[in-house]
Write a structure and sequence with these properties.
Chain A: Belongs to the bacterial solute-binding protein 2 family. Chain A: InterPro entries: Peripla_BP_I (IPR028082), SBP_2_dom (IPR025997), YtfQ_transport (IPR054837). Chain A: One of its GO terms (cellular component) is cell envelope. Chain A: Keywords: Signal. The complex is a heterodimer. In chain A, the strands form two sheets. In chain A, strands 2-1-3-4-5-11 form a six-stranded parallel β-sheet, with helices on both faces. In chain A, strands 7-6-8-9-10-12 form a six-stranded mixed β-sheet, sandwiched between helices. Chain A starts with a helix and ends in a 5-residue tail after the last helix. Chain A has eleven helices and twelve strands. Chain B has a single domain, classed as ABC transporter involved in vitamin B12 uptake, BtuC, CATH 1.10.3470. Chain B is globular, with a radius of gyration of 20 Å. The chains are: A alpha/beta, B mainly alpha. Chains A and B meet through strand 7, helix 7 and helix 8 of A and helix 2, helix 10 and helix 12 of B.
């Protein structure tokens, strides 16, 4: 594997030097958290593709969900004298020392997907993350626009209790529907971000709301719970996508399959392409000295049946979700 | 009086009925049952259907605990077997899929049994190995993603029905009857209790304690595999990260609620299953109630505490004392 990566790196760099591209000589190290979820795997494969597109030599260190491994990886990147370091921090604290070392070696650090504590603000170049409050708001606005003035009872499948993503996605959605008095959140429970729990919770929602006839829309904090909820609705004789509107977040491949089949309506993308904007920021910083803003927000794009879901499914399914 | 073991099941049955009554109070339609696509449909059915995986785990777990052991790996074994079943489902015929998944479960059980019975490693440590490694194995099988399948044959194990009864409930009932026949219609149950009561004395008395211990872990692996198949069939996919996660604790809790002591010896398979149903009735009730999810675990903890107190010989002794004092 290592040999393969080395070979690929050599090929890429030779190719790049013959082409004489601007970013050709850049070597960037990426300390990835590990393979905690399908999204992570997709982020890794998209990052590799984005690096290849820009002829950047890209080294990935898998930390297996351990901060100590990430710190080791960063130190080894510093020792190798890379041009920049990408870091997807597994936790928010404990980075000051190693980031100082990177700073002293004049290696810019870019945070991907997650932020660190405010004390380390001046130790990194920029953070590329998604705004999960905004994601919830996009979902809420889509629902408000779709139902118009009709009264609508919404049930919500929350993420894991206490997870910041769940809190934020709820907050954004609540704010977006607050100004629409016809939309009411009637039930809200946690589905722990999983399909099985999403299905179980939806089953009980359907029974508690008169066989589901009173439910106008389902909002789920992630697509996996929605996939479970769709099964629960089908088993209860409801038609998700037509009888009951659905909107969820993440844009994993399976939800596009459901949208293509007319069983789901909308999803808000948490893009796995965090590295793309980060590469651009580093290249601009290295070439022209442009200092990027401290926070680069990724786009939270809304997808519906109008966006050729089958095609998106085909393009996403190989990414490792 | 204080020595009377809570085997009659009165506290468990009372607790189950009480929880069902509370569920009916928070949700008036709780006992409504109708047919939907040839399958019984209603909240009460959900209790049995959703409780099936933990009930299956509890059937295996209660025998292990009766030998004074414990199996922490059941959740991970569920994940492995579910992953195998889902991966093979669309390319292999159903018998092959089921045989592979159950075979993997039996192997996992055999591994645990070998570590405990032959190498003499403490059960909690021995099964901890597979608990941790097993989930990794499951992730390797699914390559870290959720493997979905479309095979209607395998889907039957989650969404099918037998005479209107959901398949998971029917499967659990069959395994329950089979287990009871095995341990109560033969001397097996007695030998398992003897092994748990005093392994050394039993061995000297001629009981094959080593074989007994191995057998209960293998059976536990088999039950876990079935639970894994049911869980995968339910969501039409294998989620190696989450399938069976923390369910070993629910299974142990079900056994304990069922009145079986963690110190081994006497056990009741039926009450362990009832324990699983008590846990699920509580979960379903919480979901129906509409309380904010932050309360879920607190409510669960309080109910479990009450059920366990109801069974405590000292506590019932105290109640008798108090009622005597009032007279």
């Amino acid at each position: 594997m290592k040999f393969k990566a080395l070979l690929a790196a050599t090929v890429v760099s030779t190719l790049a030097s013959t082409l004489g591209a601007q970013a050709a000589d850049l070597t960037i190290g990426f300390s990835q958290i590990g393979s905690e979820s399908g999204w992570r795997a997709a982020e890794t494969s998209v990052s590799k593709a984005e690096a290849k597109k820009r002829d950047i030599t890209f080294k990935i260190a898998d930390a297996q969900q351990k901060q100590e491994n990430q710190i080791k990886a960063i130190r080894s990147f510093i020792a190798q004298g890379v041009d920049a370091i990408f870091l997807a921090p597994v936790v928010a604290t404990g980075w000051d020392q190693v980031l100082k070392e990177a700073k002293e070696s004049k290696i810019p650090v870019v945070l991907l997907d997650r932020d660190i504590d405010a004390s380390g603000k001046d130790l990194y170049l920029t953070a590329v993350t998604s705004d999960s409050v905004h994601e919830g708001a996009v979902a809420g606005e889509w629902l408000a626009k779709t139902v118009g003035d009709k009264p609508c009872a919404v049930v919500e499948l929350q993420g894991t209790v206490g997870a910041s993503v769940a809190t934020n996605r709820k907050k954004g959605f609540d704010t977006a529907i607050a100004s629409h008095s016809n939309i009411k959140l009637v039930r809200s429970q946690t589905g722990d971000f999983t399909r099985a729990k999403g299905k179980e919770v939806m089953e009980s929602f359907i029974k508690a709301e008169g066989g589901g006839k009173n439910i106008c829309a389902v909002y789920a904090h992630n697509d996996d719970m929605m996939v479970g909820a769709i099964q629960a609705m089908k088993e209860a004789g409801l038609k998700p996508g037509t009888d009951v509107l659905t909107v969820s977040i993440d844009a994993v491949p399976d939800i596009f399959k459901a949208i293509a089949a007319g069983e789901a309506n909308a999803t808000v993308e948490l893009t796995p392409n965090m590295a793309g904007p980060a590469f651009d920021a580093v290249v601009a910083y290295k070439d022209k000295g442009t200092v990027p803003p401290k926070w680069i927000q990724t786009e939270s794009k809304l997808y519906t049946s109008a966006d050729d879901p089958q095609k998106i499914y085909e393009s996403k399914k190989g990414l490792g979700y | 009086m204080a020595l009377r073991l809570p085997r009659s099941g009165v506290p468990q049955v009372l607790a189950f009925l009480a929880i069902l009554a509370v569920n009916w109070m928070v949700s008036a339609q709780f006992f409504d049952i109708r047919f939907q696509d040839g399958r019984l449909f209603g909240s009460l059915i959900d209790v049995f259907n959703r409780g099936a995986p933990v009930a299956l785990l509890a059937i295996g777990m209660v025998l292990v605990i009766a030998t004074r052991g414990i199996d922490l790996s059941v959740g991970a074994v569920m994940a492995i077997c579910g992953a195998i079943a889902a991966t093979l489902a669309d390319t292999q015929p159903l018998p092959v899929v089921i045989a592979a998944a159950l075979g993997a479960g039996l192997l996992c059980g055999l591994w645990n049994g070998l570590l405990v019975a032959v190498l003499g490693i403490q059960p909690i440590i021995a099964t901890l190995i597979l608990m941790v490694a097993g989930r990794g194995i499951a992730q390797l099988i699914t390559e870290g993603r959720i493997v979905t399948f479309t095979s209607p044959d395998l889907a039957w194990f989650g969404g099918g029905s037998v005479l209107g009864v959901p398949a998971p409930v029917a499967i659990t009932f069959t395994v329950l009857v089979l287990t009871i026949l095995l341990v109560r219609r033969t001397a097996l149950g007695l030998m398992i209790e003897a092994t748990g009561g005093n392994a050394r004395a039993s061995a000297l008395a001629g009981v094959g304690t080593r074989v007994m211990t191995m057998a209960v872990y293998v059976w536990c692996g088999f039950c876990s595999a079935l639970a894994g198949i049911v869980a995968a069939a339910d969501i039409l996919g294998a989620d190696a990260n989450n399938s069976g996660l923390w369910l070993e604790l629910d299974a142990i809790l079900a056994v304990v609620i069922g009145g079986t002591s963690l110190f081994g010896g006497r056990f009741s398979v039926v009450l362990a299953v009832l324990g699983a149903l008590i846990i699920q009735a509580m979960n379903t009730g919480i979901l129906l109630s509409g309380y904010p999810p932050e309360f879920n675990l607190v409510v669960k903890a309080v109910v479990v505490l009450v059920v366990l107190l109801m069974q405590s010989p000292r506590f019932s002794g105290l109640a008798i004392l108090l009622s005597g004092a009032r007279k």
